[in-house]
Amino acid sequence: MVEIKDFMFTPMTLTVAVGTTVTWKFDDSTQHTVTADDNSFASSPMSNGQTFTHTFSAAGTVAYHCSIHPEMTGTITVK
Question: Quick count: other Cβ atoms within 10 Å of Cβ 62?
C-alpha cells in the first residue's frame, strides 16, 4: 500500500511482482491524483479516506505523479 499524506507518496519507490494490485490510500486534507507518467493508469481527483488500485500485469518501471501537484512523484518497479 502507498499512503498519500503531507503532499508525499510513502513509500516513494515500491517493488512488486507481476500481477500485484497496488492500493494508494488518500490520507491528506487536499485532493490528489495517481497518474502514470506513461498514461497507463490515472485516478480521478480523490480525497481523504478514498483509495485507488491498479494491477500491474507487465514487468517494467512505472513512474507516476499527482497531476494536481506535479512535484509529488513515485515509482513502481514490477518484476
Answer: 18
pLDDT digit string (tens) for the chain, length 79 residues: 999 999 999 999 999 999 999 999 999 999 999 999 999 999 999 999 999 999 999 999 999 999 999 999 999 999 9
Q: In the chain, where are the structural domains located?
A: 2-78
Residues 6+ apart with CB under 8 A from 75: 12, 13, 14, 61, 62, 63, 64
For the record, the C-alpha cell of 47 comes out as: 480525497
Q: What pTM, to 2 d.p., does this model score?
A: 0.94
Q: Architecture of 2-78 per CATH?
A: Sandwich (2.60)
